[in-house]
Design a protein that fits this description.
single chain; eight-stranded mixed β-sheet; about 300 residues; alpha/beta
Amino acid sequence: MGVLDGKVILVTGGGNGIGRECALLAAREGARVLVNDLGASVGGKDEGSAGPAEAVAAEIRASGGQAVSNADSVASFTAVQRMVSQALDEFGRLDSVINPAGILRDGMFHKMAETDWDDVIAVHLRGAFNVSRAAVELFRNQGGGAFVHFTSASGHIGQSNYAAAKLGVMGLSRILAMEGAAKLVRSNVIAPFAWTRMIATIPVTDEASAQRVERIRTGMRADQVAQLAVALAADQAANVTGQVFAVRGNEVVLFSQPRPLASMSRGDGWTPATLLQEALPALQPKFTDLGASASVFAYDPI
């Protein structure tokens, strides 16, 4: 008996990397799987191919599971509606959406082209809206469903588009969880640390970055991330919603979310001068530094 027996799962970006591992594991855990993948390059600038999604679906079927493929883009709401309809037509229901689909268009913000900003937002943030909006009414009407979205803790220089989209996904997921609670519709987010073709594009500019990339390559696998994604889609996780997790190797991390860290008040109100003299210096020890994730997770994964 698998944790997803009888369930139908839509996995976006399922042709490679984390998405592929999520689709394969969901099938091993008893789910019928709709494997979606545009089949494009990491940058998403080519036409794409139906091959990667179908290859994963065929692998599931060859192992005795049930799966169909879809090569549409999550950036199109109409296309995502077709995915939901396809799941209903093929399998009669849809219980969860696991949504790691994404692209990268890195570049320093002061040099970033509008198209690189728009395309990354379209796939990551608009894509998260699309898959959620296309399935949420179905989930509400059937009295339950789960979204597993993906964010990032990377914060790399040159990824303003990616970071903005991924932080937006966190906000979207939280509101989905709040609004869906009464109807047993859940939404959680995972920040994955794993070697994928996206991570392979990170430029190695010095010894520190070389060590970081090697640590990810040798110690953090996509299948380790898939374990949590599939668990969050299971009925046994019915009390887990509105949370942000990270996975690093065999380590599962629960992240904080925006909450007050410290405060100061002044009975007669603040002025720019008193804020500069008193409040900001007093609050400064609680400031979040500008370090990337490597400054927080400086240790090797378990």
